[in-house]
Amino acid sequence: MSHELATIVLAVVGAVLVIASLLFFLRPRWLLGWLKGMAVFSVLVIGIYTLVIAVNLMGYQSLEGMKTVATVSTQRQGEQLWVVTLQTGEQAPVIQSVRGDQWQLDARIIRFAGPIRWLGIAPGYRLERLSGRYTSLENEQSMPRTVIGLSEQKWPDLWELDRQFNLPFVEGVYGNATFMPMRDGALFDVRLSGSGLVAAPQNEAARQAVQLWDE
Question: Domain range holding 36?
Fold first, then answer.
């Protein structure tokens, strides 16, 4: 902003403040009524925002420290085709065919700040999707991809709104586990913290797959 434009803006703001102050002395009832209306409107906005947060929290699970959120097992079904079983807590497992050489699990994380954090509300997480990927760039560009949604979209979506408008007291974080290799009989443990997902091999088949992949 140029100095000339800044001068005009500041002059207008100053004039408005001076006129509002004078009106307070000349017509105090009018100004007090306006202030009361603005206060009620502010309380209404805060109430609606609080309700939106509460509704969205119903679709998230509490996250405190490092937490195991799922196990992923893979069974060969064909050439670059696998049966992937995703087990989350006591819920029924998600069993899907996934194409590719690697799998990835994505999650949405909501963290809180300011007054909401002072209430002691832990961050929330929601598993978002399970997907496959090919190690070959040519296959990745030409072969069919698998993306499996794990949650239903709700409106208003607080996570999406924060990513677009940077909402106060809320931070939407996208967490994902690094792509892990597919191998017949492999079992992985997926853990989540406030910063993202981590996948760790849990049996010999998974450890061998990671070792060969790293080489």
Answer: 3-57
| 199 burial type by CB count under 10 A (0-12 exposed, 13-18 middle, 19+ buried) | buried
Angle at 174 between CA 165 and CA 112, to 5 degrees: 60
Burial 150-160 (b: 16+ CB within 10 A, else e): beeeeeebbbe
> Which single residue is written with the structure tokens 């598993």?
127
- Give the residue from 57, 72, 97 where a domain finishes: 57
d(CA 12, CA 8): 6
- Residue 52 and residue 70 share a domain: no
Predicted confidence band of residue 178 (pLDDT cuts 50, 70, 90): confident
At 83-111, the pLDDT tens digits run 999 999 878 999 999 999 999 999 999 88
